[in-house]
Amino acid sequence: MGCQQKKLPYLGNPVTEGSELIYPKIDEFSMLDQDSIPISDQSLIGKIHIASFIFLSCPTICPQMNAQMKEVYDETMGMEDIVLLSFSIDPKRDTIPALKAYADKIGVKREKWHFLYGSPQDVLNLAEKSYYAIAYPDSTAPGGFTHSGGFLLVDKDLHIRGVYDGTSQDETKRLLADIDILRKEK
Question: Are 24 and 178 in contact (CB under 8 A)?
């Protein structure tokens, strides 16, 4: 008996077409990154991406999330098929110049880690409907927003294949291990 290569699960509720299960994909979107370069679902096909939903003035989990994402950035730097996306849920304050200043401050390259700016409704809809993430304005929450702290691992065909606690070192290690598994899948 040969060794079976480990595969990651597909997340989301599939639909059946004939005898085939069709798993959900990330919906169409187009947003600008910190250098005003358009990033869309189409530009991600053929690449593995890790997504998060953040805001720069977040006083709670975002600094931890960004530190963990920076570790993913550092560990995947030589892997051209891996990109990181941080969708801002606060475009009023997180303008493109603010996102650019932040990316420059932490020393990341746009080609690898995109801080994305879009309309509030587009970002919140994408979070909820495509990435199964929580993100919404909340005047009672610190910083004015409630959002989940997950990192979402998405394959080259835009299927979500893993969810990780973006504030946890152990979960970041699990994400990095799963990236290796996903890169080996055919």
Answer: no
The residue written with tokens 């746009």 in the block is 110
Measured CA to CA in angstroms, residue 34 lies from 44, 91, 92, 117 at distances of 17, 12, 14, 8
pTM: 0.94
What is the CATH T-level fold of the domain 26-184, as seen in this structure? Answer: Glutaredoxin (3.40.30)
CA 6 vs CA 9, 12, 173, 177, 179: distances in Å = 10, 19, 17, 11, 12
Read off the pLDDT of residues 61-73 as tens digits, 9 standing for 90 and up: 999 999 999 999 9
